[in-house]
Amino acid sequence: MKRTLCSALLGLSLAACGPMDEAAPDLTSEQEQPLEATCTSVDNTAMTTHACAHASNPGDNVNVNGTSGAPNISTQHKHYTVALSGSGTGTVTYIPVARTSTTSAVESVAFYTTQNVTITAVDTSVTPNVTLTALVSTDGITEGTCALHHARVFDLQVGHTYELNIATSPATTSVGVVPEYLYDNRGRYYRDADGDGYGASSPLYRFACEAPAGYVTQRFDCDDTNPAIFNC
Ligand SMILES: [Ca+2]
């Protein structure tokens, strides 16, 4: 950080001064920032809570047969119970829509599941087809009595048709799946510069799938430079 002094130029227009260093812009305050670069897990998030709510609500359950016809599981806010073959495999179809903006080309989608699964997403909208593996695999999710203990995250092209090939290990004859858009369910985190566990309410915050370093979910720190002052 260097500051160009302009004392010799007093009286001239400010435009005649060299650049003055200011605090580096906090690009993380932008809601539209790319998400997955710092996303290593989707456990213990608002999205997990949201997915578990659907898994616990019988009214959200949809039974589909993953052994024939690759049924579509793209409807939001559903818990799909996917029937699998005796060897624990099946195929469903997923078509992402734009969530972040009407021009968004890629969406991050987390598939929460009740079993340990391998999922490959085959983009059948391109020739030759492209096969994707999960960018993030989170296991051991424990939230209350929620049956969703695993999640697999993919970045998917909006409007493309993906065949999701599911294989459970150990093999099970069905698996519960809740697809969720990361963008819809990111947590909001506040900057905690003084480390007292409370973050400044404004202007710095960021959305993320997990708390970034130096950010916390609790806000209301009116002095983020003094760890003895918080919740004020
Ligand atoms: Ca403080």
From TrEMBL:
Keywords: Signal. Residues 1-23 form the signal peptide. This is Lipoprotein. It comes from Corallococcus macrosporus DSM 14697. The lineage of its organism: Bacteria, Pseudomonadati, Myxococcota, Myxococcia, Myxococcales.
